[in-house]
Amino acid sequence: MRRRDLLKLGALALIGARTPWVLAGTGETRLLSAASDADGHHYVIGLDETGAERFRTALPGRAHAIVAHPDGRHALAVARRPGRFIVVVELSDGAIVGQIDASEGRHFYGHAVFSADASRLYATENDYQRGEGRVGVYDVRAGYHRVGEWPSGGIGPHELLRDGDTLIVANGGLRTHPDQGRRTLNPEAIHPSLVWIDRGTGHELARNDAPAEWQRSSIRHIAALADGHVAVAMQHQGDSGGQAPLIAIAHPERGLRPLYAPDTLQRRMRDYCGSVTADADGSAFAVSAPRGNRILFWSAAGDYLGDIRVEDGCGLAAEGRRGGFLISDGRGGLHRHDAHGGTTQALTVHPAVRFDNHLLHL
Amino acid sequence: MKPITRTRAALLLAASLAAPALAADHQPINLRVTDELIVPGYQRLVAVTADFEAATAAGCADRARLEQAFHAVGDAWHDVELWRFGPVEYLDRRGRFWFWPDKHARMDRQLRQFLNAADRAVLTADAIRELSAALEGMPAAERLLFTEQADGLGGADAYACAYLHAIARNLNEIAAGIVHDWTDPQGQRALVVAIADDSSALYESADEYATELLKSLHTELLAIRDQKLALPLDASLEQARPHRAEFWRSGRALRNIGHNLESVRALFELLAAGIEDKALSDAIRGDFDAAANALAAITVPLYQAVTDPQQRPRVEAARAAVNTLAERIGKELPAALGLALGFNSLDGD
Question: Which ipTM score applies to this complex?
Answer without folding.
Answer: 0.85
